[in-house]
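Q: Give me the 3D complex with PMT.
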Amino acid sequence: AGADWLKGKKALVTAGGTQEPLDPVRYLGNRSSGRMGYAIAQALQEAGAETILVSAPTDLAVPAGVTCIQVQTALEMYDAVLTRFSEVDVVIKAAAVADYRPAVQAEQKIKKDGTSRTLELIPNPDILAELGRRKTSQVLVGFAAETENLLANAQDKMHRKNVNLLVANDVTKLGAGFGSLTNIVSFLFPDGRKIDFPQMSKHEVAQHLVREVANLLGV
Ligand code: PMT
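A: Here is the predicted complex, encoded as structure tokens.
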């Protein structure tokens, strides 16, 4: 193993928070900045992998040498990821994907009329779960952003979504999760192994993750 341990491998990373339009000027979103996913894309590229970044809107610059596909909604991310799944060796799903979208997207800006309103939401497909069902030889890495029962919820996601590695972050901790420059994570594996990391930069988390991915790929 060395600087180009992922040479010849193809990787796909998702990043950022999807935006689900309500009308031409409004959307439902979340607080993901994209930093975690962009750091992973950079680390994969630096390790020699041909890297595709499927990104929801962010303010970040695409790391040098990385191919970026911009998307807005969960459905667009679903299409961008699923169409490329068969050609890649590893997928890392760091994006915060909206579980629901508005049932109706208004063609014109919604006007206020002083009354209260109810918004109907319909479920989005779970991209990671679909990859878990279709997986052949790919290494699949998921994230779990939890505000309670971190370990139990993360373990449940790992098994339900059939991933090879799950990165659990307690997003209630200061210096972890959405928007921060650092993260506090644990890596969980289906064989029961668990590695807990102290607070570190998202770039350092990305480097640890790339090392584990190389192990899982057997390189
Ligand atoms: O972007 P940053 O500001 O740097 O913040 C990083 C982060 C907190 C967003 C990141 O570390 C993280 O935890 N990303 C996953 C956030 C999330 O939506 O977690 P979840 O527990 O809701 O989803 C579990 C997994 O399923 C994730 O890998 C997610 O990408 C995937 N998923 C979820 C819903 C859905 N419809 N499709 C999916 O693929």
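A quick observation: The chain has five helices and 14 strands.
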